[in-house]
Write a structure and sequence with these properties.
Bound molecules: zinc ion
Strand content: 15-25%
CATH topology of the largest domain: Rossmann fold
CATH architecture of the largest domain: 3-Layer(aba) Sandwich
Strand order of the largest sheet: 3-8-7-4
Largest sheet: 4 strands, parallel
Distance between the termini: 40 Å
Mean pLDDT: 85
Order of helices and strands: HEEHHEHHEHHEHEEHEH
Number of strands: 8
Number of helices: 10
Number of domains: 2
Structural class: alpha/beta
Radius of gyration: 18 Å
Length: 270
């Protein structure tokens, strides 16, 4: 564990050096040391002003769990995960960044997303502890896997990059090989919840036996829409003895938001 902490310190030191010579990805200003909700951010892409101005979900309103917001809970029926933690609605600049990471190979954005997620996550834990809400320790972090064919074509899995960085920053155990995607399904885009569930039936496989102490698993994804993918993985984990599954994602986009009248919680800065 000591070498892990030393490595994290070394990475932070490198990032701080880089940030002193970088320009902000959004406004072009100089990037210096930055903080979010009281936590230092190991990132070299954004200036402090732009970090403050990002459209985060208001974690105070939702007590760190978007499923506690009735409109979100109603919009995600038939899910098998217990908690949902997201950084932002799927809007600018996160939607632009996620597209650039996925299709243009901007890997450095994984560190930015994980730094923002870690800061918000730690602040949420502190708030919960302050009001005596029970916090179950995380036994394992995993990411939503890609099918090997898609991984080979794209060359990387963006959820894995974010998850690895997130777990590294918080010194949590991460395993990229627990869940395997065995069906290379057609795209989920434009499908309803039930169509997605049908499309994803038996798409995942647990390729490692989970240790008996693993009761709380955190799944990381880049974007959640209907939650069907993470839900299918949660079902497998629970069949293997896991009791609590928390889904952590950079963005949440809800299907047919206009049609169903779903109200997105008010972001912090708007
Ligand atoms: Zn800026």
């Amino acid at each position: 564990m000591a070498w892990k902490l030393a490595l994290i310190k070394f990475k932070t030191c490198c990032t701080n050096t880089l940030s002193s010579i970088s320009c902000c990805d959004l406004c072009g200003a100089n990037v210096g040391n930055s903080v979010l909700v009281g936590y230092s951010l190991p990132q070299a892409l954004l200036c402090q002003y732009c970090i403050n101005d990002l459209p985060y979900f208001n974690q105070n309103l939702i007590t760190g769990n978007l499923l506690s917001w009735p409109a979100i809970h109603r919009a995600l029926p038939h899910i098998h995960f217990d908690q949902l933690f997201a950084l932002s609605p799927y809007i600018y600049p996160f939607n632009k960044w996620l597209g650039q990471m996925k299709y243009l190979g901007r890997f450095e954005l994984a560190n930015l997303f994980s730094a923002l997620l870690c800061a918000q996550w730690q602040a949420m834990l502190m708030k919960k502890a302050a009001i005596s809400i029970e916090i179950r320790p995380i036994d394992l972090v995993i990411s939503v896997p890609l099918h090997v064919n898609k991984w080979q074509i794209r060359g990387y899995n963006q959820a894995h990059l974010i998850a690895k960085s997130f777990a590294g920053q918080l010194a949590l155990p991460y395993d990229a090989n627990v869940v395997m995607r065995v069906k290379n399904n057609e795209s989920q885009m434009g499908k309803t919840g039930s169509q997605r569930r049908k499309n994803l039936a038996d798409a995942f496989f647990l390729q490692e036996k989970l240790a008996s102490h693993i009761k709380h698993v955190l799944i990381i994804d880049d974007v959640v829409t209907t939650g069907t993918t993470a839900s299918e993985i949660s079902k497998l984990l629970k069949q293997a003895g896991v009791e609590t599954v928390t889904l952590v994602t950079v963005c949440l986009t809800l299907p047919n938001a206009k049609k169903s009248g779903v109200v997105i919680p008010i972001p912090l800065n708007y």
